[in-house]
Amino acid sequence: MRVVPLELAEANAVVAAWHRHHKPCVGHRFSLGVIDDDGVVRGAAIVGRPVARLAGLPREVLEVTRLVTDGTKNACSMLYAAAARTGRQLGYLRVQTYILDEEPGTSLRASGWKSDGPSGGGQWKHTDGKPRRTDQPTGLKERWSLELNAPYNPDLTFPPADADLSQPTLPL
Q1: Which residues is 60 bridged to in the sheet?
Q2: Are 140 and 101 a contacting pair, CB within 8 Å?
Q3: What is the pLDDT of residues 99-134, one digit of tens each?
Q4: Please, what is the end-to-end C-alpha distance for the chain in angstroms?
Q5: Sequence-ordered list of residues with C-beta below 8 angstroms from that of 78, at least 6 positions apart, any chain
Q6: For 129, phi and psi rounded to 5 degrees?
Q7: Distance CA 121, CA 139 (A)
Q8: Does residue 88 belong to any structural domain of this protein?
Q9: What is this structure's pTM?
Q10: Domain total in the chain
Q11: On the CB side of 4, how many CA atoms lie within 13 Å of its CA?
Q12: Which range of residues forms the domain containing residue 122?
């Protein structure tokens, strides 16, 4: 088996077919799949920005928002590990995900992730006052995370809009 990049539409098709309690995602930072030696997709992970507003800056924290497999041995662990490796290479500080209270977290533990303990659950409203979706579980979750890179000064400085960014040309 090996990990391959997926387009969001491809990953969402796998989620729509196999996920027990979530619908496809609207957006992502990247998506990954795991395929067998015949090229058959055995699982997919969709990795995006944190869903919770206070979970960290979207520039610093990734969240595995969907992960699904057909039950192929080690596919979940491969996807969680690959999501973390990709996030590390992209410079993110942390990757996180939430699992249902009744899920054991075996694949996360096998991939080196740590449990942050119980988190969330219940009902809440969006900042615009709309009620939360009710077509997905609202019970207590457990957050798992993995530190990827050392913190940096988040106050980045960008060149002014009128800056001359032309590159000098070398004579041939």
Answers
A1: none
A2: yes
A3: 887 788 888 999 899 998 887 765 555 667 776 555
A4: 48
A5: 1, 3, 34, 43
A6: 90, -5
A7: 4
A8: yes
A9: 0.80
A10: 1
A11: 15
A12: 2-147
Which element (helix H / strand E) includes 145? strand 141-147
- pLDDT, one tens digit per residue, over 5-36 is 999 999 999 988 887 666 777 778 999 999 99
Amino acid at 88: R
In a 13 Å sphere around the CA of 9, the CA atoms on its Cβ side amount to: 0
CATH code, 76: 3.40.630.30
Side chain identity at residue 96, one-letter code: Q
Establish if 13 belongs to a structural domain.
yes
In a domain? residue 49: yes
The token pair that represents 16 in the structure block = 């729509």
Spell out the residues 6+ positions from residue 53 whose beta carbon is closer than 8 angstroms to its own.
127
User: Position 65: which residue type?
Assistant: T
Structure tokens at 160: 């002014």
For 146, the token pair is: 């993995």
AA identity, residue 125: K
